[in-house]
Amino acid sequence: MPSGVAFALVAYLLYSCCDAIIKGFGVSLTVFEIAFWTALFSFLPAIFTKPKGEHWREFWRMRHPVLLNLRSLAGVVGNLCVIYAFVHIPLAEVYSINFLAPIFVVALSVTLLKEEVTWQRWLFLAASFCGVLLVVRPGFRDLQLGHLTALAASVSGAVATTILRKVAPVEKRVSLLGMPLGYIVVVNGILMIPTFTMPSLEEFALLLAIGGLGGTGNIMFIAATRRAPVSLIAPAQYSQIAWAVIFGSIFFLEYPDSITYVGLLIVATGGILNVMSDETRIRIFSRLSVFGPASAAAEVSPPLGGDAGPPGRGDKSGS
């Protein structure tokens, strides 16, 4: 196994651990508090991802301030929605819905960025969508608010991804990291005030673990992109489905039925074929600390309107 793939598998395992810990909080903390503390603690490992020659005090100097602020707002929405989803519905269902994000990314790319998409890619995306329908089965059982927030997180992640593809070639990494993190900390810091309760020492330790594990996963993922082509790394993201089933059954007594397993298999197969179908536009859905460990999607791909930059340049969540 190439070392880059191994790094990516470890990174996605760490992200899945973060998601499981978040689910474990249940309703003991509000989603605003969870988002605030995890984003705040994510600043610590984010410090080590700063490229040489850039300074955190200059994160506010942007060439596309409107787009970066819009991306940060999408990150706040996606972060809150996916945390709510993790707390209230099974992990495997959250992941399956989050993997709808490529469909929204392609739709935005076609309508707003005038990209061309092959029929093969549409076919693979349609297969993934059908797989999600098998997992969620709308109309055959009651949908919960968690399903809708997971879908909203996917849409938010797609918006953030599309903007990232435009601005990543010209913006500093400290801006791409600092702006969304700052938004999450400030917005959730304000929203949590009316119902704020001080976390216990155990809860603080778990929140710190989320930030540390997520930040370590970010570093591992960046290392992966420097050691292997993205066409090899991208399929590793679907290992999270296996971890969702394992963690869900062990810690939360979530046991998918046979139809759900079939749906998850279709989601993973369609997604892997999608990311392997066109190596010039690989979508890798993961989570950099910019959206907190439990966010939806971002992308490693050649930037729009420019040549492909270094693979480690891409940002990364729901995703």
Provide a descriptive summary of the structure in words:
Helix content is 64%, strand content 0%. It has helices at 3-25, 31-46, 65-88, 91-98, 101-111, 119-136, 145-167, 173-191, 201-225, 230-233, 239-251, 258-276. Helix 2 crosses helix 3 (65-88). The chain is globular, with a radius of gyration of 18 Å. The two termini are 26 Å apart.
Keywords:
globular, disordered C terminus, 0% strand, 319 residues, 12 helices, mainly alpha
Compact summary:
The chain has helices at residues 3-25, 31-46, 65-88, 91-98, 101-111, 119-136, 145-167, 173-191, 201-225, 230-233, 239-251, 258-276.
Chart the SSEs and their pairings.
Blueprint: H1 3-25, H2 31-46, H3 65-88, H4 91-98, H5 101-111, H6 119-136, H7 145-167, H8 173-191, H9 201-225, H10 230-233, H11 239-251, H12 258-276
Helix pairs in contact: 1-3, 1-9, 1-11, 2-3, 2-8, 2-9, 3-7, 3-8, 4-7, 4-11, 5-7, 6-12
Query: What's the shape?
Result: globular
Average per-residue pLDDT, rounded, comes to 78
Percent of residues in helices: 55-70%
How large a portion of the residues is in β-strands, by DSSP E?
under 5%
Broad structural category? mainly alpha
Report on the biggest sheet.
Answer: none
